[in-house]
Amino acid sequence: LKVMASGVTVDASLKDDFNAIKLGHKYAYMVFKIEGESQIKTERVAENSTYEEFIGTLPPNECRYVVYDYKYTLDDGAKREKLLFIHWAPDSARIRDKMLYASSKDAIKKELKGIVEIQANDMSEVDEAAIKEKVKASG
């Protein structure tokens, strides 16, 4: 087993994808995957999706990073948006994968500015009610 100070790099196109969602709100969300234990790449993007539809796409036994353009309404009716960075590491994922994603998270996070980070190990932690609480708490 290779010790991971995580030599994982971030694919150059990832920053462009992130800017497309952050500045242009071009996508509802983007999913990133570590390929070949060496590079974080964009796995897929979705232009339109409800939060429920998005949750249904999370792999039950594999880790992923997700950037989600979360739109919500405050109690007073004001509309808000926050970019969520979800580190999806389900309890059922392989330990080695969970370690690789955990040790590589900083590589992708430094590319992504102005986001609310959410660590999720099961569906209850990405439930929309839980997300709304975390988003509101973040200001």
UniProtKB/TrEMBL annotation:
Keyword Metal-binding: no
GO cellular component: actin cytoskeleton
GO terms for biological process, alphabetical: actin filament depolymerization
Transmembrane segments: none
Keyword match Plastid: no
MF terms (GO), sorted A to Z: actin binding
InterPro entries named in the record: ADF-H, ADF-H/Gelsolin-like_dom_sf, ADF/Cofilin
Keywords: Actin-binding
PROSITE patterns linked: ADF_H
Coiled-coil features, chain-numbered ranges: none
Domain ADF-H: 7-136
PANTHER family in alphabetical order: COFILIN-RELATED
Family membership noted in the UniProt record: Belongs to the actin-binding proteins ADF family.
Protein name: ADF-H domain-containing protein
Taxonomic source organism: Macrostomum lignano
